[in-house]
Amino acid sequence: MGYLSPFDPWRERSLCTCPFKYTVNPYTGCQHGCLYCYASSYIRGFFSPRPKSNFLDTVRRDLTRIPQGAIINISSSSDPYQPLEARYLYTRRLLELVSSNYVVEIVTKSDLVVRDLDLLLKARSVVSVTITTLDETLAKRLEPGAPPPSKRIRAIEALANAGIPVVLRYDPIIPGLNDSKDSISGVLEAAIAAGAMHVISSTYKIKPDNLARMLSTFPDLEAKLSQVYRDRKSRVRGYIYADKEYRYSVLSTVRDIAHRLGASFAACREGLTELNDKGITCDGTFLACR
Question: Which of 3.30.2290.10, 3.80.30.30, 3.30.1320.10, 2.60.120.590 is the CATH number of 5-288?
Answer without folding.
Answer: 3.80.30.30
